[in-house]
Structures are given as C-alpha cells and as structure tokens.
Amino acid sequence: MPRPGFTADNLPMIDLEDIRQAAARLQGQVLLTPCVESRTLSEIVHAQVFLKFENLQFTASFKERGACNKLAQLSPAEGARGVVAMSAGNHAQGVAYHAQRLGLRAVIVMPRFTPGVKVERTRGFGAEVVLHGDTLEEARAHAYALAEAQQLTFVHPYDDEAIAAGQGTVGLEMLEAVPELDTLVIAVGGGGLISGIATAARALKPGIQIIGVQTVRFPAMFNAIKGTHHPQGSSTIAEGIAVGTPGQITEAIIRERVNDMVLVDEGDIEQAVLMLLEIEKTVVEGAGAAGLAALLKYPERFKGQKVGLVLCGGNIDPLLLAAIIERGMVRAGRLARLRVGSRDIPGALAHITAAVADAGANIDEVHHQRAFSALSAQSVEIELVLQTRGHAHVRDVLARLQAAGFDATPY
Description:
single chain; alpha/beta; Rossmann fold; Alpha-Beta Plaits; 6-stranded mixed beta sheet; 4-stranded parallel beta sheet; 17 helices; 14 strands
C-alpha cells in the first residue's frame, strides 16, 4: 500500500547535494566514525577490508543520522507539535535521542513484544513510549493514526528522502576516508542505508560496485529487486534488517543505483559477529555483521578488491551474544562434549579427570548418567564438557582417555 502522500508515480529521488546538505546539518551532532582497514580480516577473505564503525555512535547505530537530518528540517509549527515514529529498535532510540536534544516532543510506538531494555532505553531519552499491537504492521498503523489525530510528523524508519539522505552521509565519509574503495557491501532492511550510500557513492565514483545483503529469512527487498519468491521467516538474529515490506522510495533508488544483492544465512551472520568480536574487539548486532557475512559466504566474488563494510549497529542482547560466542566455540572445537564409559567404582572419575588434565584440557561441566544409559548396571556414563584448543586437541584428549582404558567417544 502506498505510503500516505506518495504514489508509485511521484516517488522522490535524492541526489548528492541532498546528502551534502545532510552532512552539514549533522556536523557536530553525530560522531564522525572511523573507517579503517582490518588487516586480519583482509588476510582471511583475501580482499582489503575497510570497516566503518557506526556501532560507535551514541545510540550504537547509524539510524540517528537519518533521524537527526529529518528532525532538523521540521518547520517551527511541526516542531511545536512533535513527532511520532514506529520502531522496536535502533530507529526508536535515534529519533528519541535527537528529539530530546532538539527539545521536541517524541512519541514512539513499539509492538507489545519489544524487549523491556529497549523500551526503557527509549524512555530514557525522554520519549513517550506507546506499546501497541503484536506485530510491526499493527504498531505502524497505530503510529499513523496518532500522527493524524495529534498532528504529529511521522518519522519513517527508512522510506523517506530525508532519512535516506542522512544515512547517505555514511557513504560520503567512507569515500572521503578511503577514496580508492572498489566495492561497498551494505546490509539491507527497508533500504534507507543502502539507498543513501549508493546515491553518494555512485555520484562520487560512478564505477564503484554496491552490493546489498539480506538474510535468507527476511528477503523482501531481494525478492522485489530480483523478482524471486523466497519465503519469509519469523525470526532472525539480524533483527535490525528483519523488514517484511521494502520501502517504495528506497526500492526505486536501489533499482537504479545498486549493482546486486545477495543473501546470507544465520550461521554466516553468527560467524561474522564472533569474528568481529574476537579480531576487532568490537561488538556488533546481527545486522551490523551482515556485510562481513557476505564476504565470508562469497569470498571469490570479492577477492582482491578494496571492500568497505558498515558495522551499522551494536545493540545486541547480551544473552544472544553469549549464545553466539558459545556456539562459535563449539564449531571451532574449543568447547567439546565427550561421552566416557567407566566402571561405577570409587576413584574412576579421578582417573578420568587426571587423563583430561594430562592432555592439557580444562573441564567445564561433568554429568553422571546411570539410569538413562545402555551400559551395564555396574557401569556409569560420564558426560564431559571441555575447554580445548581446537579439534586436534579434542582428538588428543580422546586418545589419552582411550589409552587409560576408558571407552571415550565424542557426542
């Protein structure tokens, strides 16, 4: 359904001058984040990788660029009435923070399922939070209704030229910092970030390659651009780009200025989050790792190129991050689970732990299993969770246990 005030025939398009004007408005209001090479990631993917650290913004996301640009252009009458936005995440915080800074009333509509920490942080920026609906669409409809009833200016999370122009300042800064970039790989949800960046980059360097990235579970823009019909899932660790309906303005810009789009899996994003944490010592949310996930999944496509990635957000739930770290350790063999069979006699466990210690591994968890075991009634099955140095070390531990006379196997 067309957004109020627009039809398919009169969608506006932004240009480089819009983005330069946005950059002037944002000067001193948002952080000029670093854009630097990651030598280690470059070696891993065989491309020269430059990272734009938008996760260092005050609200830990690029979203405040578009919000600030939009709010700074309100007329005195619009500013006096205030603004309303719909968001369950980074856009909410960006609008709330800059509305507070500019002295504007801000109403943020969030779905009822929004995690409490996000609700409280948005309230902490002085916004009036309204919890409504079980889906983003229900929340959006309520926000439009509030905008009409209270004469508030609706601040769309992506389908707005002022928002896209504000996000485009990221691309302006990247090419000012590293003008020799060959390729930009950008996460895509509703398309505000990539449409702004593509507008700036295409004007400054017409031959640059611009690639959009979406998750397999939320491929709405990919389907719209490619004419495909990939099904939409219900959840993803990259919730910042989990958009079910592509923007009309942004889709038009992407069709004209973006070279291609690719899809990445949940596992690719998990690996990218963990690599950025371990290698760059920086925390990113799933959406912020989508660009690196694409490089990891399609290395031949980017081999030998100078590639710019935007770490577009760092607002990840600590429990989710902990789960990603633990799962990554399992995949790397640094956390291993073994099954050890033994006679159920005093001292058996001591001999097992001694063998593990001799192999240089550390025991994380121990579980005895007597009733739910196929072993004889005089035997016990012991499950060990070990911290190791990797897959080869796990094999050494198994060999040491077997040499000590125990029936040891990996799970």
